[in-house]
Amino acid sequence: MNMTPPPAPPQVAAGTPAAPAPVAGLAYHRLSHADPKSRWFSPLLEGLLGVAVFIGLNLIISVALAVTIMGSGLSLQDVATNRSVIMEHPALFALTFLSLIAIVPSLFLARLVVGPKPWGLIHSVAGRLRRSLLLPYLGLSFAVYGIYYAVMLALSGESLPEYRYFQPPQVEFWVYVAMMLLLVPVQCYAEELAYRGFMMQMLGRWLRTPWLPIVLPAVLFMLSHAYDPWGQSTILAMGIYAGFLCWYTGGLEASISLHVANNVILMLLSMVAGLDPFASEGVTPLDALQGIALEGVYVVLACLIFNARVRRGEVSRETQPLKVDN
């Protein structure tokens, strides 16, 4: 008979921390809890550092803007009172959008220093931006907006006026088109990182319910846009829709797509029609209701697509067992 005793279990040295248990079952707004090093005050530190970096970057961009404005023969007052003049100067256009895109490196640096980590947690419950959802949602959002504006144009019996330079192939026209297609989507991504990513997860650090993390950032999102009351109502609705989609789908993909399609199509239409894309007045009650309903159609379709993916086991609205890399 073998009387050899079984081997003793391995000894863990005193003071050695146990490996973090896999984190599962977290909704999008609660993802800061996926990082075991995150504390209740971490979102405050993250926000302070992010704002400081953002201000620093915008000081640099502001100097470049001032130099460009003076070099173009304009005054700071001209730009402050009539933002549409940036459509006359490609450099001003680019710098204006870069001032918002600065949100991305600001938040990245803040999360790199403070957490929660990894960076991908700000994108989705999968710890990354899910391209398998982002691409279909982009196609859906552009289809919804494109069909809507095509139908409205057909019903009106009108045609788009010629581009104000009267020569669409003109170099300046295509420079603006290229900048819009490159910069506007990144600007939308940056705003979604701030208003949905950071703010929802900051509030979700302290609150289990998703409704305040959905509604409060939407109100702040509305207040950051200087439109008339009916225009503000559409911005509030978009913010609420976007926050709901982040919670329901477990990530930013659907909200980014909604934001990108709205801004890109409106910018391109405004330019082609010779209108002011930065106009803050002129939204009628009917315009607002149509816009809110259009966004609602997108939300319903986006949820149907997501539900179909969930049934096939391709995606989840909550975290699966996830090991956080520090």
UniProtKB/TrEMBL annotation:
Lineage, highest ranks first: Bacteria, Bacillati, Actinomycetota, Actinomycetes, Micrococcales
Keyword field contains Acyltransferase: no
Keywords per UniProt: Hydrolase, Membrane, Metalloprotease, Protease, Transmembrane, Transmembrane helix
Family matches, as Pfam families: Rce1-like (PF02517)
Annotated signal sequence range: none
Protein name (database record): CPBP family intramembrane metalloprotease domain-containing protein
InterPro entries, sorted: Rce1/LyrA-like_dom (IPR003675)
All copies of domain CAAX prenyl protease 2/Lysostaphin resistance protein A-like, residue ranges: 175-265
GO biological process terms held by the UniProt record: CAAX-box protein maturation; proteolysis
GO molecular function terms attached to this record: endopeptidase activity; metallopeptidase activity
Top-rank lineage group of the source organism: Bacteria
Residue ranges crossing the lipid bilayer per the database entry: 47-71, 91-114, 134-153, 173-194, 206-224, 230-248, 260-279, 291-310
